[in-house]
Amino acid sequence: MSQTSSSTSVEQLLARITAGTERLLQEATPDGSDETRATIAELLDVVEEVDDLLETIDFERLPDAVEVSALPDLVKLDGVPNAIREHDPDLALDLSAIRDVIHLRGLWNAVDLVDFLRELRQLKSELEDVLGPDAFGSSGDSEAAAEIRKFADEVKPDATNAALQQEAKEGAKAARKGVIDGHSKFEDLYESTQRGPGYAGRKPVSNNPTAVSSVPYGPLPASVSTRVSTVPTSVRHAKIDALPRIYSRRWKTAGRTE
Q1: What is the domain partition of the chain in residue ranges?
Q2: Region Disordered: what ranges (predicted)?
């Protein structure tokens, strides 16, 4: 299954859940109790918050954050029957190796961390309205949950750093768009000066028969030096991917790819 279809499947599932919850609310309105209607309305709020949370994730890039070959190490197949029978996930899961499964750089590039944390707080608030204020008060004694919490604590500094870099990247995108627009206008102006008759565009539109343009005649030569940049594509110690470099002929397509 492609990642595009996977993302679409998630959206379709949420749409069905939302529609079903709204239908429950409508059906409960005529003769249902106030408590029932309030509970269904709160469930609808939870579904909407889950939808908002998932919108902060780029599902097409998410697979880059997972080392698929390491996933089997997280599951103890011989313990699955007992885990189901005993309702104990620790019998089937060993999340001590979760660090080998998740590529943090891929994860940071697939998730809008600032929006994700904001939506996560809102989702937690909505869940507390449904489950009660003590819903997240107990940490439990599950080893799997403990490993997840330990992993989250370990990567929290990296996540904070990555979130700051994402904000800086968004600011750079705005400035970059201005530069691209300015470059495009300059290109249009340059091409307009090449329309006069004469020496392959060297002679400008002028009443002076001896006038010669000082603007170098284009277009750029199709040489290796104009197609290859020696500037590294990534930034050392950066937690997220840098914006694509723009040089030479890439200026003509940069506006379409931003």
Answers
A1: 1-62+111-137
A2: 192-212
